[in-house]
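Continued from yesterday's entry.
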Amino acid sequence: MKPLLAFAFGLVFGCGILISGMGNPAKVLNFFDIAGTWDPSLAFVMGGALLVTAIGYRLAFRMGRPLLASSFSLPTKQDLDIRLIGGSAVFGIGWALTGFCPGGLVPVLGLGTAPLMTGAAILAGILAARWMIQLSYRKTAAEA
């Protein structure tokens, strides 16, 4: 049941990305071009998503527990560290340069080389970050 629901939710998300135009990198890049051909529609898409999320969280937490799990799995870490800030910066820079974020990239992967190259760059970034984290852990362990 979980895989079927995950597929259904992913399908709804992907359709939302495509319907809103967020699978089109030119539309996203125009949002970032404040001094030129600025397109504010992305702000409305994000605002709508935040509204739906806020309502969804309120309803979900009223239930006491998720439908398909024994408890909610929520992050407990609340401090800002270099990994969070650096990752956010790299994400934003990559999004502004390519017009694709990972969520908006998946529904358009088969539409040409730009999405495939962006996907490869995201994968390379993930692997590089994991490698750097492993190196830092090894260095910390060696110093101890």
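--- second protein ---
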Amino acid sequence: MTNVHVVGVCGSLRDDSATRIALECVLEAARAGTATTELIDLREYELPIFDADQSRADAGDADALASRLRDADAIILGSPMYHGSYSSPLKTALDYCGFDEFRDTTVGLLAVSGGAFPVTALEHMRSVCRALNAWVIPHEAAVANSHSAFEDGEFVDEDLEERVATLGRRAVQYATIEPDPDSFQSDQNIGAEGK
């Protein structure tokens, strides 16, 4: 497939981020599948804590972030696991978005943990995306024990690297899939309207 644009959102603010390394692997695989890619590094955005009484236009770089996500054919969300969930920078970024950015958009999920397999971070991101009526790729990628997963910015385990890269290939493959019907909870998600 050609003319697919895949955007990766890095939910880690660390300089030496394992999440960013893994997300770059996903985007590299998407480029190999003829997609154009873009990394949204949340360190570069001014995003105040979400306040529903404040318009997105008055919330730092929230409009610019939403615009870049709207232009994507597929979005990859990458996050470290913090306290059993995904990161607060990513949560804030998602709070400034809504149906206009995610409805009927293919979304892939990547979670990274310093310890055990980050299942709950993946589950929580999947729940948010389904509430926004995104089409979430069934294949998800997780990097556990991240301190030993990389050496000099490269994966140590080729099988793990392949699993992460597969997410990028699936993002291209399913970028234009016919989406599922709206999720049952989306009609209750009034926070996603008009943001």
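Helices lie at 18-32, 62-70, 88-95, 99-102, 119-131, 146-149, 158-173. The chain has seven helices and eight strands. Will compare against the first tomorrow.
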